[in-house]
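Illustration 12: Zinc-binding dehydrogenase.
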Amino acid sequence: MKAALKTADGRFEIAEVERPIIPSSDFVLARVAVAGICGTDLRHWKKAEKELECHIVGHELAGEVIEVGEAVHDLKPGDRVVIETVMGDGVCEYCAIQRYNICEHLYDVRTKYVSRAYAEYVCGPSRKFYKLPDHVSFEEAALIDTFSVCLHAHHLGQVGVNQRVAIIGAGPIGLGQLQLAKLAGADVIVADPVRTSLDLATKLGADAVIDNSGEDFAARVMAFTGGRGADIVFECAGGESMPQTLPMATRAVRRGGKIVVVGGFDAGATTIPLEWQRLQMSEIQILLSASFAFHDIYPEQGMVLDLLAKGKLDARTMITHRFDLDRINDAFDTADRKEETGAVFVALNIT
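Figure caption equivalent — predicted structure in token form:
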């Protein structure tokens, strides 16, 4: 099959590799139709990382079932599916209570099977494959992973009616967080330095936006909340910006409020000085959100699929660019230069 492999310098090369085979009776083989470029993928762009060299990556994908194991009865060849790529080892105490998003072996397992979106075929256990309604396109379905990350953070933050919510970052995660907060009845203000991203936030329902390349984020949030501060601040930028954005969040949240960190950290120690005495005396909670799993008895990816199918989430508006797999380096370059290109969600047509 055709696949995009990571190179020594952190880019991609297109190569022919062995197609995955079904390893057990409960597994499914699918042809990937569309994959997305996540902020996590972008943090590895053009970085020399020996552990990723010659590997297939990517974890936002939808496609069509090609083959099923003999124990699979709820899926058949030809079914259109979205594929969940959060997959633990299935045997640890966290997987046993459906908190597989914090499984110690999460990345070892997911990258061996389902987290290989930038290739023509992917294989995984049938429980990770969700049938798509006919009216949900592959492109829209590729955003379900993004929305599921947002829903997990939304559940941690316990967003409620009439709350004042501030969001740092208007990429796919921030815009997904915005839509869920509005669904819950909150008033939402969104900050980002990219004007096109703020315009999209307004289109998707933001009550106010902040250009934090020149505006004072905390002052604008205080004005938006009548001087009290936000009930909840979602940090959705992550990566290299975290030493700036996390302190921003702490200055804009109210006493007794919550900060939910959705944006990812880079590996290793990250030093971020914070006013810990003020945070403690104000009983401000800092909650760290990792991927998604279950909420009570419901799989969060299944919940998102239901919301999308009912028209309660808008994925289509967030798709700004499309590329074929052969142009994956151009796609990543476009996503990386969003200030110039206006990119939000970049879709890759795999097959």
